[in-house]
Known about the structure:
Oligomer: single chain
CATH architecture of the largest domain: Roll
Number of domains: 2
Distance between the termini: 73 Å
CATH class of the largest domain: Mainly Beta
Shape: elongated
Number of strands: 7
Largest sheet: 4 strands, antiparallel
Strand order of the largest sheet: 1-2-3-4
Order of helices and strands: EHHEEEEHEEHH
Strand content: 15-25%
Amino acid sequence: MESIEVKPDKAQRRLWVIYSFVVFIIGTIICGLIMLAGEFEAIIGGGVAWLGWCVVMGLIITYTRAYWGTLSYQIDDDSVDAEGGVFFTKHVTVPYSKVTNVDLTQGPFQRMMDIATIHVQTAGAGGAQGAQAELRLTGVKDFKDLKRIVTERARVVGRASAPPPSEPAPPEGSQKEILQSMLQELQSIRELLEERQG
Length: 198
């Protein structure tokens, strides 16, 4: 099996910028309402708040774009890896032997941009489905093929690492002794039932 390297699509970066822009507009409206209060102090305070809001949102958008550039995903023969981070890099590796579930989520805007998020879950990750995934491949194209590849590789590794089915232990004693024991048990049950009825 070949190793597959995946980067999030540019559409995911655009989506994050759009979300930030919507938050920026909401903050601008709030600052505008403060300024419409009419008093000089409110106008100055609202203007200062709006300038601060512009700086904060500019930093958030810059960070978002930088964070998108650091994300990368690797689908190997024995594990799925994700790496990313602007100031501190986080590297997550999930071996296929630990994978319990592979899900897709796709919000309405992701659907419009034809991208999705793949959630790779393990038994150790609790919570609602997808909410506590051990690893997320965010904003990927060809998400159905990637999900299928991860699922198939997890199945292959899971089958290879599963212990062979064990045969039931033969009962102790000979067949005649076992049957005799069963007969005695049935007779005891019958006697108890007759006592309860009589």
